[in-house]
């Protein structure tokens, strides 16, 4: 043992010497260029040397088993990345892990997909790891032949080997459901002053200028945009002046200039993927290409006096481009496509980055190219040939645009073709054949908005704002008509009800009924006591009209044998005849959480077996599998789209996922998810879950408004959840039995203030009309510390996705008449004028508690003060990204 370790130390010392070598900049390296590729080769040699001891050398243990599953093909959006080296100081992929004697690549990818991860890796034949980014010192790309160990579940496939993983990555842009003829326009920061765009013809000289982040192009205090059909033909020079940028789209070139600079962070890494440390996205380094006046990447460019590789990658990603390139130390280029003929010469990229001398940023007429493979910005589809832009409407040849804004507030609106609202903020677009299109925006306060627009839309939304806060009304009070029955369910975790009595169930049912909820989907697992709690629930519901159905948790229940199938049939049969059993089309409703990997035949072993017992079921599972299989799965009557309730990246939620599922299901029933929040924080020694989904910008309201606008096609909605405390998605009271360790981020963080909002939206979804507001109410929510704070005593660490969220106090006002609303966070107080109806407000969080009032004619008609129940800080002891919700009516 000792000689081996001594040799290992020597190799490490040698690796340290090699690290001082000149960067080789070979394609596929893990930038930054300051680390030589030969270093990663040394690490791989060290891995081989210690292979006989595997993970035990570093204190690693094999993760716990997962029930055996069956194999099919990889889900859409996932692809093989390659064979990569494991880390020695920590697991390379640390989001989630399990081991299984029946492991296959599909099993691993499916489990990672369920949990929202974008990277999956198989190792040592029977181990699966999930993450969104690399950890530790591994990640070096090896030859595919290195990963030679057969998978436990299918020896014809490989599942890594000792110290190496077969890596799979998810890229939503590869999904077939992405449309190529839609254009999404997104303003990602506040706009001030005024800007104009017009056509002209010009040539340009490339120059290095002041530092510029993409957000600055559309959000700085003195920005001016001008569109021209210019072609860059000049020479490369270096100077210091205002930042400039050009973007070519559909025959027009947009040029932007601004005077401020944005600081960028440096980055150092040693594997084959470049991870953008600004936002955790991952880029593959293609190499150093010879550039020309025609440009290898021709759609967008920006000069940055403080450029780093990170700042360029972030700039291109924020604008929706797939390729990014750095050149001459200060020039950043972006494009949706790569030039057809590219010549690579690694020796030509030898100019250091202006913002980081430890990195190289291309050379003279030499561009270092990167391809986006895993985006932290969004999981939704975008048009690869017409990426998102910073303008109010998509710009084409012959387009003029005018944007004016003042103050520093932000207003959030979402649009649809049928929406028409009025007041200070307006966005319009009109066009006629062979004529110039125009786009105009006028905002009282600078606007942060995301909208998908067509040339025939006309949209306006009422906004009122002062100082740094913002206000926006609900999207529309007009609800699409539908004669179909609509139902609203809430997901209830039976696993958190061990101590429940009939009175606890009765209390939950009473609260849910008052919130407009029709029934509970009872998530039942394998614990023997859970069927007794389910029985209590059915008894409590009785003849109240409140309904229940089973949601079989297939991550807990076994499904690999005929006896397992018989157990599932028995569970459903036990409660099918209860008076409180939910039905759809006169059939017993049954759902699942997961189940796509089960070895049983759902048709013959489950559906047909129940039919033989005289029980016809309406089976609407929540599968995490390829949507193209839905229409041919005869055993399912519909599908619950579990992950439709949250955005999977850093941008707000869209309906892209809904539309994909609805299309794939055909005549089958689609059930949509709606959820207020998501945050989980467990150590690797417990549940090994530590991430959040972005819940900003009134997610709960926004999602309900989306479903209401789609009620002609969406008939079923399921709230996720009533009581999943371990994932912070609950809207019910904090009661029962919390998962061990969740009390640290759940205790005191009440969410019941959302119940009145639930009733408001659920009523509109079910009946086709919003209810009248008969009582003034103020609901507000906030997180207890800043998103980028460093906790002084938290061994688990920041959650994945922490950078996706922002530090605001969110509020919703339900006003019977026009009123004045005052919000307070710490020492910050702001007032808003609101009209009758529902208005969304937000202000920046400040240290201290939160409170608010609604006043009318000099009198306070509603108020809320959290007092000592809540306090916001920038220096927490432990991390907590859960939300605290308060309400004037509670």
TrEMBL record:
Residues 410-481 are annotated as: Disordered. Transmembrane segments: none annotated. It comes from the Eukaryota. Residues 1-21 form the signal peptide. Residues 77-171, 282-373 form the WSC domain. Keywords: Repeat, Signal. GO terms for molecular function: glucan endo-1,3-alpha-glucosidase activity. Coiled coil: none annotated. The keyword NAD does not apply. Residues 410-478 have a biased composition (Low complexity). PANTHER family: WSCD FAMILY MEMBER CG9164 (PTHR45964:SF5). This is WSC domain-containing protein.
């Amino acid at each position: 043992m000792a000689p081996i370790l001594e040799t290992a130390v020597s190799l490490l010392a040698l690796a340290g010497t090699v690290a001082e070598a000149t960067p080789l900049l070979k394609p596929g390296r893990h930038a930054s260029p300051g680390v030589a590729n030969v270093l990663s080769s040394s690490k791989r040699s060290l891995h081989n040397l210690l292979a006989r001891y595997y993970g035990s050398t570093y204190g690693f243990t094999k993760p716990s088993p997962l029930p055996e599953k069956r194999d099919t093909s990889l889900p859409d959006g996932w692809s093989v990345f390659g064979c990569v080296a494991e880390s020695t100081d920590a697991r390379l992929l640390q989001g989630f892990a399990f081991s299984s004697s029946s492991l296959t690549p599909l099993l691993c990818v499916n489990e990672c997909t369920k949990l929202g991860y974008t990277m999956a890796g198989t190792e040592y034949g029977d181990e699966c790891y999930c993450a969104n980014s690399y950890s530790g010192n591994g990640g070096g790309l090896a030859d595919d032949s290195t990963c030679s160990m057969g998978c436990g579940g299918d020896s014809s496939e490989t599942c890594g080997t000792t110290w190496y993983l077969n890596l799979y990555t998810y890229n939503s842009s590869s999904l077939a459901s992405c449309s190529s003829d839609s254009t999404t326009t997104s303003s990602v920061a506040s706009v001030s002053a005024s800007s104009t765009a017009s056509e002209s013809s010009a040539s340009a000289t490339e120059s290095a200028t002041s530092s510029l982040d993409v957000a600055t192009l559309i959000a700085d205090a003195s920005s001016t945009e001008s569109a021209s059909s210019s072609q860059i033909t000049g020479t490369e020079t270096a100077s210091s002046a205002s930042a400039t940028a050009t973007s070519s789209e559909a025959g027009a070139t947009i040029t932007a200039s601004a005077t401020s600079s944005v600081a960028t962070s440096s980055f150092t890494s040693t594997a084959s993927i470049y991870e953008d440390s600004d936002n955790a996205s991952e880029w593959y380094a293609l190499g150093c290409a010879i550039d020309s006046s025609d440009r290898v990447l021709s759609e967008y460019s920006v000069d940055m006096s403080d450029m780093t590789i990170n700042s360029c990658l972030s700039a291109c990603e924020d604008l929706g481009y797939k390729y990014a390139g750095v050149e001459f130390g200060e020039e950043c280029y972006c494009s949706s496509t790569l030039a057809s003929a590219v010549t690579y010469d690694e020796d030509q990229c030898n100019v250091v980055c202006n913002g980081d001398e430890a990195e190289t940023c291309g050379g003279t007429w030499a561009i270092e190219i990167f391809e986006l493979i895993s985006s932290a910005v969004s999981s939704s589809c975008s048009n690869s040939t017409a990426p998102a832009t910073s303008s109010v409407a998509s710009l084409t040849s012959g387009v003029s645009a005018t944007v004016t804004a003042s103050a520093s507030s932000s207003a959030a609106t979402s649009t649809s073709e049928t929406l028409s609202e009025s007041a200070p903020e307006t966005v319009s677009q009109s066009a006629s054949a062979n004529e110039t299109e125009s786009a105009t925006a006028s905002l009282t306060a600078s606007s942060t908005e995301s909208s998908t627009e067509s040339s025939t839309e006309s949209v306006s939304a009422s906004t009122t704002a002062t100082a740094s806060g913002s206000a926006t009304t609900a999207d529309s009070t007009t609800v699409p008509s539908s004669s179909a029955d609509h139902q609203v369910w809430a997901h209830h975790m039976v696993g958190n009800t061990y101590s429940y009595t009939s009175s606890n169930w009765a209390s939950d049912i009473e609260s849910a009924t008052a919130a407009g909820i029709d029934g509970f989907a009872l998530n039942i697992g394998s614990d023997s006591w859970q069927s007794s709690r389910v029985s209590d629930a059915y008894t409590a519901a009785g003849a109240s009209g409140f309904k229940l159905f089973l949601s079989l948790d297939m991550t807990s229940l076994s499904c690999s044998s005929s006896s397992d199938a018989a157990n599932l049939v028995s569970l459903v049969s036990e409660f099918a005849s209860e008076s409180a059993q939910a039905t759809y089309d006169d059939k017993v409703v049954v759902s699942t959480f997961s189940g796509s990997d089960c070895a049983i035949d759902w048709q013959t072993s489950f559906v047909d077996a129940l039919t033989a017992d005289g029980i016809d079921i309406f089976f609407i599972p929540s599968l995490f599998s390829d949507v193209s299989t839905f229409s041919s799965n005869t055993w399912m009557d519909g599908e619950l789209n579990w992950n439709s309730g949250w955005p999977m990246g850093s941008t707000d939620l869209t309906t892209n996922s809904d539309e994909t599922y609805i299309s794939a299901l055909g005549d089958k029933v689609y059930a949509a998810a709606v959820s207020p929040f998501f945050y989980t924080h467990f150590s690797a020694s417990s549940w090994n879950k530590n991430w959040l989904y972005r819940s900003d910008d009134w997610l709960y309201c926004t999602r309900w408004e989306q479903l209401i606008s789609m009620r002609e096609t969406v008939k079923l909605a399921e709230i996720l959840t009533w009581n999943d405390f371990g994932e912070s998605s609950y809207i019910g009271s904090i009661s029962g039995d919390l998962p061990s360790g969740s009390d640290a981020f759940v205790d005191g963080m009440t969410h019941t203030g959302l119940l009145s909002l639930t009733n408001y939206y659920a009523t509109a979804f079910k009946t086709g009309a919003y209810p009248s507001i008969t009582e003034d109410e103020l609901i507000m929510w906030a997180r207890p510390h800043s998103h980028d704070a460093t906790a002084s005593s938290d061994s688990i660490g920041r959650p994945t996705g922490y950078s996706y969220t922002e530090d605001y106090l969110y509020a919703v006002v339900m006003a019977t008449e026009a009123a004045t609303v005052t919000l307070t966070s710490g020492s910050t107080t702001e007032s808003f004028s609101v009209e009758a109806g529902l208005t969304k407000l937000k202000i920046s969080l400040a240290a201290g508690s939160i409170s608010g009032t609604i006043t009318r004619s000099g009198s306070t008609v509603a108020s809320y003060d959290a007092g000592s129940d809540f306090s916001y800080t920038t220096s927490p002891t432990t991390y907590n990204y859960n939300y605290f919700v308060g309400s004037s009516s509670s």
